[in-house]
Amino acid sequence: MKKKISLIGAGQIGGTLAHLITTKQLADVVLFDVAENIAKGKALDIAQSTSVDGQNINLIGTNNYEDIKNSDVIIITAGVPRKPGMTRDDLLEINLKIIKQVAEGVKKNSPKSFVICITNPLDIIVMAFQKYSGLPTNKVVGMAGILDTSRFKYFLSQELKVPVKDIDSLVLGGHGDTMVPMINYTKIDGKPLTQMIQKEKLDLIIGRTRKGGAEIIKFLEKGSAFYAPAASGVEMAESYIKDLKKTLPCAAYLNGEYGVNNLYAGVPVVIGKNGAEKIIEIDLSSKEKEQFNLSIKTVQDLYKAAKNIDKNL
Ligand code: APR
């Protein structure tokens, strides 16, 4: 049976997701956007690429929520991206309104889907989506940790002149300037990172990772990163659809894990056919724990700000 992925938001990330899903032949694609013609135009353009590459994938563009019915996966990028100088948190009010509409559309038309949120500020938007839609917490996750980890690994690979595939790492916590690269957990070809890099260089790379999105926004001037965010979202969708049970850093609902309650934040999660099947609790050093708790505090503070905007959250 062919799978179906609906993409809510057909902007930069949505279009790239549609193209990646098509080239990987993962599923048929519904591109949904309030800007109907953008969704239709991108769907048609990518559909025409399938006769070059030979994929048997159907794509449609729409602004009708009924078209997302019975999706296996829904990936949400609907919202406004950052402009130069903005933080992800500056998007809170506008993107909360948008996610409320999206949650209503998903709840009504495809409540059994596995939902991956990408819209920023990520940890709060994914939480708001879950609360507004009422979908089970194991079926609602946020994409951030894979992206942050891939940025960290890329910068390390450039500095240490090693292939990215030889690096194992994890970046956890909130998707913002307080995210926490797990240094003790990071291995280069199986060897501890700390034995291979000077502290000053590592600190620079950690700082660059935390500002990884802003660096790209500054270059692009219009819009924010989309290739790496889309690749990261597809990895999550694929692990669910193919029941790969990969352990991936994702924003997941914490119910006591890592000492955190009733909050979404970045932790390692097993993604398989039941969605977020298990949260893996890795041992943190006291410094990592301190940094993780600080990052959680920033997410909690933003959640309070969200509740001031909508007390139903
Ligand atoms: N319903 C559906 N789509 C919407 C809605 C809505 N209520 N409101 C806006 N959109 C659409 C826009 O029409 C636009 O096509 O969302 C799309 C967003 O695309 P871009 O502006 O290109 O943004 P993108 O770079 O894809 O990022 C989307 O992901 O990483 C985050 O910070 C980023 O929050 C931003 C989101």
Gist?
Helices cover 43% and strands 20% of the residues.
- Name of the CATH homologous superfamily of the largest domain: Lactate dehydrogenase/glycoside hydrolase, family 4, C-terminal
Mean pLDDT: 96
User: What is the chain-wise order of helices and strands?
Assistant: EHEHEEHEHEHEEEEEHHHEEEH
* Helical run tally: 9
Global structural class:
alpha/beta
**In percent terms, what proportion of residues is strand?**
15-25%
Helix content: 40-55%
CATH architecture of the largest domain: Alpha-Beta Complex
Say which molecules are bound, naming each kind only once.
adenosine-5-diphosphoribose
The CATH topology assignment of the largest domain is: L-2-Hydroxyisocaproate Dehydrogenase, Chain A, domain 2
Key phrases:
binds adenosine-5-diphosphoribose, globular, L-2-Hydroxyisocaproate Dehydrogenase, Chain A, domain 2, alpha/beta, 3-stranded antiparallel β-sheet, 9 helices
Textual characterization of the structure:
There is one protein chain. With 313 residues, the protein is of the alpha/beta class. It has two domains: 4-142, Rossmann fold (3-Layer(aba) Sandwich); 145-308, Lactate dehydrogenase/glycoside hydrolase, family 4, C-terminal (L-2-Hydroxyisocaproate Dehydrogenase, Chain A, domain 2), CATH 3.90.110. 43% of the residues lie in helices and 20% in strands. It has nine helices and 14 strands. The chain has helices at 12-23, 36-53, 92-109, 122-133, 145-160, 199-210, 212-220, 227-241, 286-309, and strands at residues 4-8, 28-32, 59-62, 73-76, 114-117, 140-142, 167-168, 171-172, 180-181, 187-188, 191-192, 246-255, 261-272, 275-279. The chain has a six-stranded parallel β-sheet. Helix 3 (92-109) links the parallel strand 4 (73-76) and strand 5. Helix 3 packs parallel to helix 4. The longest helix has 24 residues, at 286-309. It starts with a strand and ends with a helix. The model has no long low-confidence stretch (mean pLDDT 96). The structure holds adenosine-5-diphosphoribose. Residues 8-14, 33-35, 38, 77-79, 81-82, 91, 95, 98, 101-102, 118-120, 223-224, 226, 229 line the site of adenosine-5-diphosphoribose.
